[in-house]
Write a structure and sequence with these properties.
Strand order of the largest sheet: 1-2-3-4-5-6-7-8
Oligomer: single chain
Number of domains: 1
Protein name: Thiamine-phosphate synthase
Function: Condenses 4-methyl-5-(beta-hydroxyethyl)thiazole monophosphate (THZ-P) and 2-methyl-4-amino-5-hydroxymethyl pyrimidine pyrophosphate (HMP-PP) to form thiamine monophosphate (TMP).
Number of helices: 9
CATH topology: TIM Barrel
Radius of gyration: 16 Å
Strand content: 15-25%
InterPro entries: Aldolase_TIM, ThiamineP_synth_sf, ThiamineP_synth_TenI, TMP_synthase
CATH class: Alpha Beta
Family: Belongs to the thiamine-phosphate synthase family.
Helix content: 25-40%
Distance between the termini: 36 Å
Number of strands: 8
CATH superfamily: Aldolase class I
GO biological process, one term: thiamine biosynthetic process
Largest sheet: 8 strands, parallel, barrel
């Protein structure tokens, strides 16, 4: 099978947001990477949401990934798609790779990391690093030592840390060598989301 295309720019700060309006806000704030994670819509409403998100990111420096809905991502011309382990059984990886779409895969332990890397994705996400209230997790928080191990296992494949990441613990997370920090509530619940984006981005050297 073809490897998935590499990401065009470093993933760095990765905002995971619930709708196209939030995607537009994150693009306007200059987020390096944005993921649309829509859990409430279906059918035509979901298609329109994906379409709006793709349009919001088009021509910007933000790399947009669509969570779960790989068929819609493919049909609407999305830059990338992010899938969980449970989605790997049904996804048409050859078609996605042939279309040039970028692929991110979630992992929660070494076995899932090995399974994800076998697909040769554009990046792998590792989590949850810390306890998170955003999503029911199938495993206990991984912690920094396991994250460091996952980064080593991934080799040259970019890695995204997710789960309970805040501005306070972000420097310690980056010290593991991980490529990117993905956050949900650290931006969606921030008093000034655009300022939160800028604050996180300052953690990476120019």
């Amino acid at each position: 099978m073809l490897p998935f295309p590499p990401i065009a720019r470093p993933l760095k700060f990765y905002a995971v947001v619930p709708d196209a309006n939030w995607v537009a806000r994150m693009v306007a704030a200059g987020a390096d990477t944005v993921q649309l994670r829509s859990k409430t819509l279906s059918g035509e409403a979901l298609r329109q949401e994906v379409r709006r998100a793709v349009a919001a990111a088009r021509g910007s420096n933000s790399q947009l990934f669509i969570n779960d809905h790989w068929r819609l991502a493919l049909e609407e011309g999305a830059y990338g798609v992010h899938l969980g382990q449970e989605d790997m059984d049904s996804a048409d990886f050859p078609s996605l790779a042939a279309a040039g779409i970028r692929l991110g895969l979630s992992t929660h332990d070494e076995a899932e990391m090995a399974r994800a890397l076998a697909v040769r994705p554009s990046y792998v996400a590792c989590g949850a690093v810390f306890a998170t209230a955003t999503k029911a997790m199938p495993t206990e928080p991984q912690g920094l030592e396991k994250l460091r191990r996952y980064v080593q296992l991934a080799g040259s494949t970019p890695t995204v840390a997710i789960g309970g990441i805040t501005l306070e613990n972000a420097p310690a997370v980056l010290a593991t060598g991980v490529s990117s920090l993905a956050v949900v509530s650290a931006v969606t619940q921030a008093p000034d989301p655009a300022a939160a984006v800028r604050a996180f981005q300052k953690l990476w050297p120019e």
